[in-house]
Give the backbone structure.
Amino acid sequence: MAEHGKERAGTSPPKMPAPKMKEKEYQRELRRLHGELVALQEWVKASGAKVCIVFEGRDTAGKGGTIKAITERVSPRVFRVVALPAPTEREKSQMYIQRYLPHFPAGGEVVIFDRSWYNRAGVERVLGFCDDEQVTRFLAMVPAVEKAMVDAGIIVLKYWLEVSPEEQTRRLESRIDDPRKTWKLSDLDLLSYTRWDEYGHARDEMIAATSSSWAPWFVAHSDDKKRARLNVISHLLSQIPYQPPKRTKVALPKHTVSTRESGIVLPFIPTPF
């Protein structure tokens, strides 16, 4: 497995945050890591490995952008992203974990959860969609469920993206008038914004109760989106014992072109650009 960084995980943020990363440096490092993700993909396919990656964090923490950075250059047939909507009435009557089970990875798959079963310990708890007894039962149950996943051969990685209150405010404000981002600003997002302390308490209790030796939590600072994405990708690569398969040398076969024109009038789209 390739080396992706020597620094050990810590419990405290650095005293002096690094300056915002420049775009050129970011793209250079991302290109290198994308190559490693493709190598991981080929190993997963060849070995039949099963990988499950969970992303949690407050609104605007950067979950979606980090997931896009991971999946940008790999196959959607191998890397699947799961972002479930609110549960239906039928799903509400099921065992809580039940609606997530069909999405767990089979052999040769990497499944990424953009929010997960940990909704019960986070957003559902903070916004009052479940009661304290349900949260307590969930926190007691999850380590055993994740132990069963690991015993079944699934590599489980869980990330909490930690954004500061100042950066969260800046990102939410940027969504108000930007037509590309208005869909990211819901009534529930605004309600969640008023409950910073409640989310912090929920995060701490969740991590304390469910970080285990077989499925530990990892926290990444995400005020600098570029650094956060690179740090997470580098870290997840370091947690999976992949070996890039040897590639055979490829040569293009002879390319025979007898005609460049179609035999019919093709319905091309307009070209205003």
In short: The first helix runs from residue 23 to 47. The two ends are 45 Å apart (CA to CA).
